[in-house]
Amino acid sequence: MDNSRGEWSSKIGFILAAAGSAIGLGNIWRFPYVVGQNGGAAFVLLYLFFVIIIGLPYMFAEMALGRSTQRNPVGAIEALKPRSPWKATGYLGLVTAFGILSFYAVIAGWTVGYISKMLSGRPGGFAAFIADPLLVILLLALFLAVTALIVHGGVAHGIERWSKILMPLLFIILVGLVVYAVTLKGASAGLSFYLKPDLTKITGRTMLAALGQAFFSLSLGMGLMITYGSYVSKKMNMVTSGLSIALFDTMIAIMAGLVIFPALFAMGKSPEAGPTLVFVVLPELFAMMPGGLIVGAFFFLLLSIAALTSTISLLEVPVAYLTDERKAGRKTVVWAAAFAAFLIGLPSALSQGASDFFTNFGLLPGRLASADFLGHMSFLFGDLSLALGAFLISLFVGWVWGAGRAADEIQSGSPGFARARNIWIFMIRFFIPAVIFVILLNLFGIFG
Questions:
Q1: Domain that holds residue 429
Q2: pLDDT tens track for 306-329
Q3: Are 250 and 170 in contact (CB under 8 A)?
Q4: For residue 448, is it within any domain?
């Protein structure tokens, strides 16, 4: 182990940091509205199924690649297949993480702004709020500065230490919100929608949506788990760690639904509000409830913490690359990378009404992405290059490095994996690449 790179000081520290990277706006902002648009409990059932049979086996592949080489995504592929075109897959992961960080921090900034909006008793006016250029730029800068401060501290003393504080705090706030929501008058209709599957609602569209959500919610495809896996000791049980990460991630998403659907149904609102659910519909709901503005402030604090645990890991991917491969000083690199992400994030921040040019960017067809610059970044990096990266990494692990060698790495420290070894090899070589290819085709509307 190259100790100059840093290493997780404990298994729980790694699990909390990696779960934190997976738990983000995708779980608490995206998951509930996708559930609402896809028929409720039947979608949830499919989502859980896909996390277990696709997300988890693929996550083991990324973690094995990182731990075996103890390098970042570019360095890991270079170490196993020197001077080959496969190195481009590592660079794709790097660019993807950085691209996602630039627009993700914009939305994360909104969540911070909404804490004060709730406390000041003015929860409405979302369109005007995101169209205020000075405000959105300040919030973007603030969020990236806090992210950089934590990553600046290094692996054990920065990322791991703060994950041990932020993750339990996130869980405590979420439990409090669940208790509040499920005890509202009329909440039972929301619980029924969310927890009682109607299997007649399962369509091809529902299955594809569940597949995409299961895959994207685990932070796979951008080399993030390669990077975090590279700080894992050889003695650590990778299988139980991966199971714990997937369990935490899924549990937080399920709990977010337990807050949102009972509240929606209690107030007679539609669960199909789409992406505006969290920033438009929920603040209206909180304003109508007794003590709801305080509850709303805690809800947006929860969102901010979830977003922060993700931006930390997104920044760590380029930082690990620059410190490993370019031998740059970590502390300088962290702030330089955060500043670059701020500059690249500016068009996304200004694309919600502050700048006409970026708001009506319209380079991609409307069926692929919304006209605004942030919508374009979300499609290109949050959907397309993430799925493409995962497809290429699964091929690299399964066929180039070799599924047998990857399985040996997983088995090291996880002797029980021997029983599932052959199934996993089949999955990573054939099944998972085929499924990710279907996700890629679906992004372009091939399946209608």
A1: 3-443
A2: 999 999 999 999 999 999 999 899
A3: no
A4: no
